[in-house]
Each structure stands twice: as C-alpha cells, then as structure tokens.
Write a structure and sequence with these properties.
It is a single chain. This protein has helices at 19-26, 75-90, 174-177; strands at residues 2-4, 7-9, 37-40, 43-46, 56-62, 102-113, 121-132, 136-145, 148-161. The strands form 3 sheets. Strands 5-7-8-9-6 form a 5-stranded antiparallel beta sheet, covered by helices on one side. Strands 1-2 form a two-stranded antiparallel sheet. By secondary structure, the chain is of the alpha+beta class. It has 2 domains: 2-40, no CATH class; 51-181, Hotdog Thioesterase (Thiol Ester Dehydrase, Chain A). It is globular, with a radius of gyration of 18 Å. A hairpin with a 3-residue loop joins strand 7 and strand 8.
Length: 185
C-alpha cells in the first residue's frame, strides 16, 4: 500500500472512519490533520470545506419535493444543486463561454455524501475552478446547510462542437473569464 500525505492510495480507498487504521499503516497522527482526505477515483477530495473556501456561492431553497422516504433530501437532488451553481458560472454571458456552435457538457461527476440535508431549509453551494485544460474545466464544489459541509464534488465540463459532438478548444480568453472563480494554488 502506497502512502501519499498519510492517505492510502490505490485500489483501496480511505474513509475517515478508518483513520486509526491508516494512522498505524502510514505513520502519521490523524489528530494533526486539518482536513480529512479521501482518495476517490484518482481525485483527492477534501471533506473539511467551509463556505469561505469558495469564491462563488449560490443559495437554493430546499423544496419538500426534494425529500425522500427517509425525510431527508434525496441524493439525486445534490447533483441538481451542483448543476445550478455551475450554470451560474458557465452561462454568465460576461465570462465569454457562450459561443455559437459550441456547448459545454458534463463528462464526469464524483459526489461524496458527508451529511444529510433537511427540509425545510436552504443550502449554499460553493464552486470554484480547480483546473482549465485545452477543452475542459474541472470544478470543485461543496454543498452546505447551516454551515455544515454535507457534500463535496469534483466534476469535469468539456466544450464540444454542437454539430460534430466532438471536443473543441475552449476560447483563448477563458482564464480571464473565470479568473474570479479559479482556485488559488
């Protein structure tokens, strides 16, 4: 088992319920960690986010219809909350990403569910751009209720040609258009 920053990496992924086991195998002190980390499909996701970690915040009202039989918000709704916040950014005309003949599509989404979200109430969805590629934009997002991080997500959007449905380069000035939501190194 390979250790990266004290977290096991490979086919076995670590959850913070197993920190005591990982601590013994990787020789680090779990209580010294500021964040709990989880290696998920090759992307390191942080579960210790706070709303201030995100330059873009969207508020959404939790609807009664968002709940399921257990009385909490259904996991599928989390994806909708995340989409609403991403589209705030991506379809803001001032950012220059709306181009005739081109579209943005989601090609990957990973969601880690950390806590329940309840009705009635509101959620805050934090968003930031982690990386910009030739034709892709990688987002990091989190959903909060009452200041508690309920979910974290990493997702990838790709710009495609609307006719051929093949990936196409992002506009040259995309960095400028997204500068206010790009994650600081």
């Amino acid at each position: 088992m390979e250790c990266v920053g004290g977290i096991s990496k490979g086919k076995q992924t670590a959850s913070f319920l197993m920190l005591d086991i990982i601590e013994k195998k990787c020789a680090f002190k779990a209580q010294d960690l500021y964040y709990s980390y989880k290696y998920l499909s090759g992307i390191l996701m942080m579960s210790g986010f706070i709303p201030d970690d995100f330059p873009h915040i969207r508020h959404e009202k939790v609807r009664y219809s968002d709940t399921d039989r257990q009385g909490h918000v259904n996991n599928a709704v989390f994806s909708t909350f995340l989409e609403c916040a991403r589209t705030d950014i991506l379809y803001d005309k001032s950012r220059g990403l709306i181009i005739s003949g081109r579209e943005l599509v989601i090609v990957q989404i990973e969601i880690e569910f950390l806590a329940e979200v309840a009705w009635p109430g509101t959620v805050e969805i934090g968003s930031r751009v982690k990386k910009i590629g030739h034709s892709s934009i990688v987002f990091e997002q989190a959903i909060f209720q009452a200041g508690k991080c309920a979910s974290v997500s990493t997702n990838v959007m790709v710009m495609i040609d609307a006719v051929t449905r093949k990936s196409i380069a992002l506009p040259e000035d995309v960095m400028e258009g997204l500068a206010d939501v790009i994650k600081e190194p």
